[in-house]
Structure formats: C-alpha cells, structure tokens
Amino acid sequence: MEDDSPAASSSRIGEGPSGENDVQKLAPDEVSVDIEAVRRIYERLLSNDKIEAAFLNALVYLSPNIECDLTYHNVYSRDPNYLNLFVIVMENSNLHSPEYLEIALPQFCKAMSKLPLAAQAKLARLWSHYSAEQIRRMVETFQQLITYKVIFMEFNSRNLVNDDDAVVGATKCLKIVYYANVLGGDLDMEHNEEEDEEPIPESSELTLQELLGEERRNKKGPRVDPLETELGIRTNDCRRPLIPFEEFVNEPLNEVLEMDKDYTFFKVETENKFSFMTCPFILNAVTKNLGLYYDNRIRMYSERRITVLYSLVQGQQLNPYLRLKVRRDHIIDDALVRLEMIAMENPADLKKQLYVEFEGEQGVDEGGVSKEFFQLVVEEIFNPDIGMFTYDERTKLFWFNPSSFENEGQYTLIGIVLGLAIYNNCILDVHFPMVVYRKLMGKKGTFRDLADANPVLYQSLKELLEYEGSVEEDMMITFQISQTDLFGNPLMYDLRENGDKIPVTNENRKDFVAQYAEYMLNKSVEKQFKAFRRGFHMVTNESPLKYLFRPEEIELLICGSRNLDFLALEETTEYDGGYNRHSRIIKEFWETLHSFGEEQKRLFLQFTTGTDRAPVGGLGKLKMIIAKNGPDTDRLPTSHTCFNVLLLPEYSSKEKLRERLLKAITYAKGFGML
C-alpha cells in the first residue's frame, strides 16, 4: 500500500515551507493527496466492521471542528492542503449507508458547505476528472440524505425545509458535484451568440423604488451563480454531462418546498435564509415554473402600482394593463401594430398583465381570451404563405426564412409574442428545433444541431466526414454551396473567399462541415434571429428565466407537454353543481372522452382550456372543473376557458352526450357572456 510517488510524499498537510511550495506548484484541478492510494486503503479497511465504526465516530467528532475552522479561522486561505480532508472523506463509498445518515453525514455536509468559493471551484475541477460512476455515487450520497430528512422531518409552511441545516448543506454540496458533472461533460465553450449591440431600452418612467426615493435594485442584470463565474462556465456550455441532469432533481424535496416562501428568500438574498432557487438543478420543471410565475406576477403588480402612483402624482389617466383590442379578421395587423408602438414608446408596458379584447365579442379576459389570442397569432405568423418561416414536412418544424421580405420589426414582434406567452403563463403551439432555444440562451448553432434542425443535411455531412476514399476526387465539391430562395431560384454562397475554386479534401472537410453549419444555422438568418431575440428579451430581460431553465425546459415552458395523459386529468378533475365522480353522466363523459381519437382529444382540450397542449408537468397539473348546467336539454356544452370549467347539462343518454360534445368542440369559436 505504500507509494513513493511525489503526490504521496507531499500529502502531509501544511508541513512548513516545502508544503507551501508543493501547493503553489499544483494545477487548479490537482490536490496534494494521492487519491488512488486513498481508494486502496478504503477498500482494505472498510471490510472490517470495527474500523468502519471508528471512521463514523471520527467524522462525527471532526465535522464541528472543520466547520469552526472554516467559519471563523479562514483556514483554507492559510493552508490550501486543508481541502484534502474533503477529498479523503468523499472517497468513502459507505457514506450513504444508514449509519452515516443520522448524524455524521449531516454534520459533514454542513461543514463542507462553509468552504470558500475558490475551494469549491477546486473540488469541482478535481471531481470533473472522475468517472460517471464516481460522480453518480457522490450524487446518490447527498440525494439520499436530502430524501431521508424530507421524509422523516414532515416539513410544512411553519416548519420550512429551507431552515433544515442538513438539507441545505447537502444541496450546497450537491452544487459542487453538479458543476463537476458539467465540467467533465462534453463542452462547447466557443460558439456563443454575440450580445445585442444596443441594450434593451429601459422604461422612460421612474420605477416604484425611484419614485419613493430608493435606489433601483437589479440594475446589475440577470443573476449569475458565483460558482459558475469562478469556474468560467455555464450549464448551457455542456452538450452532454457525465450523468444526466435529471439525476440531480430531488422529487420528495420538490413536493415539500413552499415555493412562495422560497421565491421570497431568492429575491431578498439574505444570508440567513437559503433559497433552493439558487440551486435550480435540484428543482423539477413544475417547481421552477411556479417560481417564474411568482416572479412574473409580482412584476405585473409592481407595474400596476407604479401606474396608480403616476396617476396620483401627475394626474394622468394611465392604463394599469397591457390592453390589446383586436379584430378577429385582422388580428396580426391590429396586435403587431399596437405592440410595435408600445415597444418603441415604453417597453416597460410589455411587463404589465395582458388584457385582450376581441372587437364585437363580450368575453372578459381572465386568461382564456389571451390563450385564444396567442393561438390565433401563432397560426397566422407561422403560415408558410406569409413567408416569414419555412416549414419542413419531414421534421414538422419551422425555421427562419433567410430570404424573407418582412422587415426586422416583424421578427422583433414575434419575439415579443413568445416572451409575452411565457410572461402570461400561456402555452403556444410553436414547433422550432431545439437550436432556436439554445440560441435564445446565448449559444450558436453548430454541426450537431443540424441533427434535428435539418436531418437530411446532417446525414449527408456526417457521411462526408466518415468517407474513407478520396473526397476531392470522388465527390468533387467546393467551398461554394447552393441555396434556393422563396421562388425556387438558386443562390450561391462562398463559405471561404473564392470558395468555388477551393476543393473540399480529406484534410479540410471538417472545416467545410463547420462552415456549412455556421452558415445554415447562424449567418444566413442572423438578421432575422437577432431581431427575434431582441423582442423576446424585451419581455424577459429582467426575468430569472435564463438562470433557472435549460434550453429543453424553455421549450417545455413555451410549448407545453406533447404527452396527453387523460387518465391523469380524470384523477385530478373536480366537480361542482351537484356532480361527483360517481354520477352517471360523469362516468359516461369519461368513457366518451377516452374513446375519442388524438385529434378529438386535442379539440376538447382547446374547447375547455383554450389550448390543445398540456401544461408543464402534464395534464395532471391542470385543474379542470366539470359543473352541472341544468337538466337534459338540446343545448351544447359550454366552457369558461379562463378557469378551465366545463359546463355540462345532464344529458339523458350517452349517445346524446357524445353527439352534443363533438358538435361543441368541433365548431367552437368566439367568446360570449354566460
């Protein structure tokens, strides 16, 4: 077990000047302990029960002293070798066993969470070289402690999980492993979108804080995790982590987390109150969506209060809502012209609560009218005949039209519509490839993104890269590519200067593929996408959206879930007006609905909720109510889309119920007052 390597000889902690010199020589991802030797020792010693008990007791006695050293004595800055303690303890493969969960591991996690930022970053860099199995073992250790505490402590609104030192400590330790998982994955640090040349215009009006003589908060821009900054990496830089991001989510914790309180701690940023929103990797999409909902609502109420204050101070009659009055037949003209005026005059108005009114209709917008408005706008905008987007029949996806005749303002307005949908908690039927959401989060498209954006081109370029013969002689292609415009006319583009004279060879084919992807996904649509992103950021620039969500979660947020589980909807539906789940008509209703085809089920969802997509978390998260609407009649069922309420008469037979329901969902259009 002895090892005469330099790493082993320098493993004694803080031993005079030589120890200090050894530390200075170490790379950012190295420590002065021989990790392989530690693993060999553990392997031999842990087979002895008495020695394991000694380990357990040692950790119980050691942890409070470590916590004291780190909290009050600033020990790491004086002796960086102190980090070896944590490296050695985390190599113990029995840490997640029941004996450790009660006292030893909670105390150790609390001590480890006191490590300064530089030490946490060093641990993350070190662990990023570990295998996926070793990373998974550490994740399971901390997750087991969190789950154990959540199950046995019975947290609620008076006994907050945020106040439990063991859960908070384990979550902070899990963050170090999370960034090790990102660093050790497949990274793309280079292809970043350029920031907008001109900043998003701020409101010309004063904020509420400034009106009251206070400094404006959050002018520093969107929040960034300090450990992320220290490591010089973002989650979005990771194409494929060592282990899937989903393994970091702790479902039992999500169930007991009081999100309204957690959001408050997140915004206030006090040292004595921990917010799990600062560790978004542990939260599922539903919980994060709730945090975003609170943020959006509070911003809306803030804008409303400012408007009222202005009315009192300046005597002006200002509108506390973002009001859009549109004609159903001219929805694009009316909506986009109004939004363009608001974006130019006072972009802050976009952060007010949306209130839509269809001309000639009586519907009051409590959410349902907005849902229909967004759906109609999206249907119009993405109509291929308009020519702003192209549609791929094979992938069923839309892409920006490089040769569109529309000006940049039109794309900006589409970005605003997308941002407004997130801001007002509406789901859109939008079909973009994932690269669009990656680009919105600041990453450029690369060859790998062509796999879902343009699979045919991706396969062709992949075959070019893998071709074993002579590319130049057999394929005879150059650095000039051909595209077709709206009218089918060929357009030539040089990937390099005088590209038509540069043949693609085995040596330069990688560059050809990279340049081709760069042109298709970035350069050819640069003008259109920048305008689109600018509109999106006008609404979301102050939101924690980028901080909380990964690109695939942004897609889920905008488009909802494509998986429609009507059994889950049946489980969560509530009843009113005399109906209950055992009523004859209710049983017949669910039998009828389950017998519908996919398209009819989507029409039913559209009729009842205003959208044919499931919310984040699936249909089980949709609070639908079926209310009695009188005895047997020839009237059709009706709905309050704002509140997801279906008004169902007590039809005399199952056949009549089916016929009336199908007619209602097939021909439903427009709003009235019931």
TrEMBL record:
It is an enzyme of class 2 (transferase). Keywords: Biological rhythms, Cytoplasm, Ligase, Metal-binding, Nucleus, Phosphoprotein, Proteasome, Transferase, Ubl conjugation pathway, Zinc, Zinc-finger. GO terms for biological process: animal organ development; nuclear receptor-mediated steroid hormone signaling pathway; positive regulation of macromolecule metabolic process; protein polyubiquitination; regulation of circadian rhythm; regulation of primary metabolic process; rhythmic process; system development. Its EC number is 2.3.2.26. One of its GO terms (molecular function) is ubiquitin protein ligase activity. Residues 346-674 form the HECT domain. The active site is at residue 642. InterPro entries: E3A/B/C-like, HECT_dom. This is Ubiquitin-protein ligase E3A. It comes from Solea senegalensis.
